[in-house]
Design goal:
InterPro entries: Phage_capsid (IPR024455), Phage_capsid-like_C (IPR054612). This protein is α+β, with helices and mostly antiparallel strands and about 425 residues long. It has a domain of about 230 residues: Major capsid protein gp5 fold (2-Layer Sandwich). Helix content is about 35%, strand content about 20%. The protein contains 12 helices and 14 strands. The strands form 4 sheets. A 6-stranded mixed beta sheet has the order 7-14-11-8-10-9. A hairpin with a 2-residue loop joins strand 9 and strand 10. The chain is elongated, with a radius of gyration of 40 Å. It starts with a helix and ends with a strand.
């Protein structure tokens, strides 16, 4: 405290000297200083800055000392008792920490090192029994209820570990669109007769032919719900968000599988591998990248499309990633490197939904689309069965979408991988 006061006096005196210095060197209200005086001002300012820093440090130490003394006084002071005759708010205002809280927050308790350490004395405590006797582990293991030992509370952390689930990665390569109808319709050119030819003077021009047919793809509904009690929804923080996320993932997983292997019957989508008239390329004796490239060429020369991506099962991609030269070098990068997830420049989306041994090479960008009637919608209701009487709720997630593959020949499946 004495040092802080001395520093404050010195700081004040130096500032007064600086003030007088400036006053003496003003001419007609303007400060006029020589080069030597400017150097002197800079020196004085440096000295002032040093004193200011020392004063701030001393003041901070003093405040910490004062706070420490106040907290120590609070630990040894008797706890105030609530006035039962007063209001509830008044009782809350004068209530103090319990004896147990005071003990575990005391500096003595926190400084215990080893089996025995400093003691913390709390005044005003009237103990009826000493907390000793049967060890809590013995109580728990032997299912005994005697003894004064008390098992410490074991509080669960806030971490939730989800079960392992495949992520819907295939739809990442597919462009999306929107519709406000229950059926998505488009026109397809089914006849294209190019009769263009060189003709003689005054001869008839060849007649071409074009025909267009309407195509329809039904918008499919994919819903899922989970029951939950009102208490769980109200009492467990973040549970609604967790449920929403998992239900949303369930829908995306189903959609991810449908666009690959859906059989097109009933309410099912028609999956890409089941679409009629798609192109195929058998691997035979080729290595996988050679087979993939031949499939790319078929898309370009027979479907007259530009392939933009590949779907593969992770086990099939494994065979590509582990390809080696005759000298043992990895073609897709050293094991210490991530390596490219591409084949001949096309991105590869891996998923277990892709049938093993098949790798569709597709012009996704131009000739496929996921058309959404609505995105994933969530709703909560107690109108299911006897949920209202039981205090239960149903959280439902739903999506409506159509999977459109405009041109079959824009798809070539590399087979036998």
């Amino acid at each position: 405290m004495a040092d802080m006061k001395a520093l404050a006096r010195d700081l004040h005196a130096k500032r007064e000297e600086m003030k007088d210095f400036f006053s003496k060197n003003k001419v007609d209200g303007e400060l006029k200083l020589t080069t030597e005086q400017i150097v002197e001002v800079n020196q004085r300012e440096t000295e002032l800055k040093g004193l200011q820093e020392k004063y701030v440090e001393a003041k901070s130490l003093f405040e910490i000392e004062q706070k420490n003394e106040q907290e120590l006084a609070g630990l040894t002071a008797p706890g105030a008792r609530p006035q039962f005759g007063g209001s509830k708010s008044a009782a809350r205002e004068i209530s103090s920490k319990s004896i147990g809280e005071q003990f575990i927050e005391s500096a003595a308790y926190k400084s215990i090192n080893g089996r025995k350490g400093p003691t913390s004395e709390i005044e005003g405590a009237d103990y009826k029994a000493l907390l000793t006797g049967l060890d809590y582990k013995t109580v728990m293991q032997d299912n005994q209820s005697s003894g004064a030992g008390y098992a410490p509370q074991s509080v669960r952390s806030g971490r939730l570990v989800y079960s392992p689930q495949p992520q819907p990665t295939l739809i990442d390569l597919v462009p999306t669109g929107e519709t406000d109808q229950s059926v998505y319709k488009y026109m397809e050119e089914t006849v294209y007769t190019n009769a263009a030819a060189e003709t003689a003077e005054a001869a008839l021009s060849p007649e071409a032919a074009l025909k267009y047919d309407e195509r329809s793809v039904n918008v499919v509904k994919i819903p899922v719900f989970i029951p939950i009690t009102e208490e769980q929804l109200a009492d467990v923080g973040g549970l609604r968000d967790t449920v929403d996320n998992r239900l949303g993932l369930m829908i995306k997983q189903r959609l991810n599988g449908q666009i690959v292997v859906g059989d097109g019957t009933g309410s099912n989508m028609l999956g890409l591998l089941n679409k009629p008239n798609i192109l195929t390329q058998n691997k035979g004796t080729d290595v996988v990248p050679d087979c993939i490239y031949k499939a790319m060429v078929k898309v370009m020369t027979q479907g007259f499309a530009d392939p933009s991506g590949i779907w593969m099962n992770p086990l099939d991609w494994q065979n590509v990633r582990l390809l080696k030269t005759t000298t043992g070098q990895y073609l897709y990068g050293d094991p210490s490197q991530q390596g490219p997830n591409t084949i001949f420049g096309l991105p590869v989306a891996q998923h277990v939904n892709v049938t093993l041994g098949n790798a569709p090479v597709v012009d996704f960008a131009t000739y496929t689309s996921l058309i959404f009637r609505n995105g994933i919608e969530f709703s909560v209701s107690d109108s299911h069965a006897d949920f209202f009487a039981r205090g239960q709720l149903a959280i439902r997630a739903m999506i409506r979408a159509a999977w459109v593959m405009y041109r079959a020949q824009a798809i070539c499946v590399a087979q036998g991988l």
